Amino acid sequence: MMILSYLLILLMIIGALAAVLFENLLNSIISLGLISLIAAALMFILKAPDVAMTEAIIGAGLTTSIFIFTLIKINRGDSQ
Amino acid sequence: MNFKRFITTLIIYFIFWLAYTTSLAANEIIMGIILSTLLSVFTYKSFSQKNPENNIVVRIINLIKYIPVFIIEMVKANLDVARRVINPSLPINPGIIKISTDLKSDYAKLFLANSITLTPGTLTLDVKDNNLFIHWIDIESTDKDIQKNLISGKFEDLLGGIF
Amino acid sequence: MRFRDYLSLFLVIILGFIIFQAFDGTIDNGLNIKQFGEVNLSERTSIHYINKDVNNESTQIIYNESKNPESGSANYVTSIIANYRALDTLGEITVLFIAAAGLAFVLGDHNKNNAFASDASFIVKIGVKILFPLLFLLGIYIIIHGHLTPGGGFQGGAVIATAILLKFLAYKDYKLNHTGLTILESFAGISFLIIGLIGLYTDGSFLTNFLANGTIGTLFSAGVIPIIYILIGIKVGAELSGIISNLINA
Amino acid sequence: MILLTTLGYIMIILGSLFLLLGALGIVRMPDLYNRIQAGTKATTLGALSSIIGVGLVNPNWFFKTLIIAIFIVLTNPIGSHSIARSSYKSGLKPELQSEIDEYKPENIQDERSDLR
């Protein structure tokens, strides 16, 4: 279980770096969703299922979509 | 209010509630009945089938027949993927084809599309009216009837019986 | 002024009277809130907690059998969120409410078009038709079983908001009834406060568990905790759906 | 009981094997559509068999895992269809060896305005 946690943390770091380094904002948002998903898995390993559920639903689901809608709005404002 | 559709919806929701709770305590069952009744009052119109062709017994029998067919096809699909991936020469010959379906109801078309996506070598790109556009990994025939038989032949009758 | 304005004025006056009563030092049954420094803290933290005899309590708490244990909730995270630290939770949902209100203030024009130019494809539309009620039921299940299993108001409300997000993704013309959402939200918030005030009057501290706890592990147990969690679920679900609706339809 | 547990572990291992094959397929296939094909089938059966395996190892959870399986079967093909369709509409041409593409004339109307 320890090794799994370390692997997940490594993946999270990679995801965070990707979120910063991507040129396209959409890719960054999807990396953020990935980070939240892995964080949810880590919370579950740490025996906090309540937090894991919240993280999975809000972090990976709602926040990602809200960011994407915001991105749509920003792009629309640019083009006009 | 269509009573039959309402009851069907209620029973489906209640079965889901039982599976969510995995408990047969009286409290849970009472709560489940109350909640599924409330939810079906609001959603039975969009959830349930408008005019199913068969009665409920035939539909359930067809559903029971459909599940093993579906699972066998899914396992076959995975073996197929494995065969193609492991083979060093990567034997694929992809193309996008159009097949027509006789199914009328929306749910039947949805499940047909999903089944096609999960069966060997095919992926539904789009459904328009009575036509399904399918990405086929290895086009075996250009004849419409043979295509239809190969891709959707196994499911059409069963799905037509369910929905 | 319309009738609604009179009604709200009346409600505010009643609420002010209640709060004044609660802070009034002349009521002599021990329920009054004393001035700073005069309070004996060991009487104030939690009555049940203080009265508990730690040394002689050797009875084990058995799931589905023990009656009236301390907080009554089988999921101890819930007992902290909705009982011991319920005031914090009230603050949390207020924060969420302010966030939603700010977003509605900036973007709240519901007459504009959807962010999408057309409906989603046939498969997505019909799939959402099947998935929406099942996800909704899952959200209700998570909310109602907050005191038994992991999850609760926040998680279940978010699941319900996700179901509504699916509807928005699939149908271009889908619109939420914002008046209804506001009513649900206010109802949940006010009921939360009223439950807190009832606790203040009957047991002497805000948001105390004033109902019987019942058998631990059954659906109708843990006194006031499930009621609070259901209200939180309604509020969170309505607020998150409102945020999504504002973002998409603005 | 020991039989169920063994069966469950076998199913979990089989599921991971299918997931591995799917990952291999995603790496080896030439274009997006073929990759989705490999990915969808493998992840669906892989996740299905792992989750039902978990349900068999721990029979209390069996019905809950069954529900998860139903949701996976419903949503996974819808998601892959959505990805494939939107990439076709946004102009990603499939790599076709036999040049059969009967979807082409249909892609004029109802372009969904996605990002940009």
The low-confidence runs of chain D, each spanning 5 or more residues with pLDDT under 50, are 107-116
Secondary-structure element string of chain D: HHH
Number of domains of chain B: 2
Q: Structural class from helices and strands of chain B?
A: mainly alpha
Spans where pLDDT lies below 50 across 5 or more residues of chain B: none
How many angstroms separate the termini of chain B? 20 Å
The percent range for strand residues of chain B is 5-15%
Report on this structure.
The complex is a heterotetramer of chains A (80), B (163), C (250) and D (116). Helices cover 90% and strands 0% of the residues of chain A. By secondary structure, chain A is an all-alpha fold. Chain A is flat and about 45 Å long. The termini of chain A are far apart. Chain C has helices at 3-23, 47-51, 76-84, 86-107, 122-144, 153-170, 178-203, 225-249. Chain C has one domain (40-249). With 250 residues, chain C is an all-alpha fold. Chain D is elongated, with a radius of gyration of 18 Å. Chain D has helices at residues 2-28, 32-57, 62-89. Chain D has one domain (2-92). In chain D, helix 1 runs antiparallel to helix 2 and helix 2 runs antiparallel to helix 3. Classes of the chains: A mainly alpha (80), B mainly alpha (163), C mainly alpha (250), D mainly alpha (116). The interface between B and D is large, with 38 and 47 residues.
Give short descriptive properties of this protein:
heterotetramer, B: mainly alpha, 3 strands, 12% strand, elongated, D: 116 residues, mainly alpha, 3 helices, 0% strand
Short description:
The complex is a heterotetramer of chains A (80), B (163), C (250) and D (116). Chain C has 250 residues and is an all-alpha fold.
Secondary structure blueprint with pairings:
The complex is a heterotetramer of chains A (80), B (163), C (250) and D (116).
Chain A: H1 2-21, H2 25-45, H3 49-79
Helix pairs in contact in A: 1-2, 2-3
Chain B: H1 3-21, H2 26-47, H3 56-86, E1 95-100, H4 106-117, E2 122-128, E3 131-136, H5 144-162
Antiparallel strand pairs in B: 1-3, 2-3
Helix pairs in contact in B: 1-2, 3-5, 4-5
Chain D: H1 2-28, H2 32-57, H3 62-89
